[in-house]
Design brief:
This protein has one domain. 9% of the residues lie in helices and 50% in strands. It is built from three helices and 13 strands. Strands 1, 2, 3, 4, 5, 6, 7, 8, 9, 10, 11, 12 and 13 form a 13-stranded mixed β-sheet that branches.
């Protein structure tokens, strides 16, 4: 039985793919452009709960290191939760992002082979002039901008996909994307990124 939970908000992901991440269309069956997937994700919860715990306003981040096509599993992952969140919110998000809460993120219980743990850190997630700015000081620094489409004021969007994060994915590019954590020192500036409006739950 899945827990009773719901998250709505914004999701930004920056990875090492040199062009738009093939996982969105292949649903994790196609190899990442560099053979393995390295990346980070940021989450800003505009509205949410886990059982009786209110998650509204909480921010979180993920570190992801995956040795091949995402669907094969053996992911290495770490979770960061805003240090302003209550201990109950941290526990709730740990259940959700470890897959133990079931529902939209339930597959993570199978796909993640090595979970590096949960850390509470100050997290910034802001949207300014369309740019998604995500920061965990000394750990992740990211500025992601959507790619503009042909029609003025419109971004390039993949719609109605079966992607687990969400069906409508705005194609983006990382202007700044640096990670220093768990022995990893990554720089994905100029590489693939994506933006999704989250609507997850059980």
């Amino acid at each position: 039985m899945a827990d009773n939970w719901k998250l709505k908000g914004d999701f930004v992901l920056s990875c090492n793919c040199t062009v738009f991440c093939p996982c969105v269309i292949s649903l994790g069956q196609h190899e990442p452009t560099e053979g393995r997937c390295q990346g980070w994700a940021g989450i800003r919860i505009d509205e949410g709960h886990h059982e009786d715990t209110d998650l509204t306003g909480v921010k979180a981040g993920l570190l992801l290191d995956i040795p091949g096509p995402l669907a094969r599993g053996n992911w290495t992952a770490a979770l960061y939760v805003d240090d302003k969140a209550s201990i109950y919110a941290v526990k709730a998000l740990t259940r959700i992002f470890s897959g133990k809460a079931g529902g939209s993120t339930g597959l993570l219980k199978i796909l993640v082979g090595s979970f590096l743990g949960v850390r509470t850190e100050p997290i910034v997630y802001e949207i300014k002039d369309g740019a998604h700015i995500f920061q965990i000081p000394k750990i992740i620094e990211g500025v992601v901008k959507p790619i503009k489409g042909r029609e003025p004021g419109q971004n390039v969007v993949v719609s109605n996909s079966g992607y687990w994060v969400g069906p409508d994915v705005t194609i983006a590019r990382a202007e700044t994307s640096r990670v220093r954590a768990f022995g990893r020192n990554w720089n994905f500036a100029g590489r693939s990124a994506e933006l999704v409006r989250l609507d997850w739950g059980s």
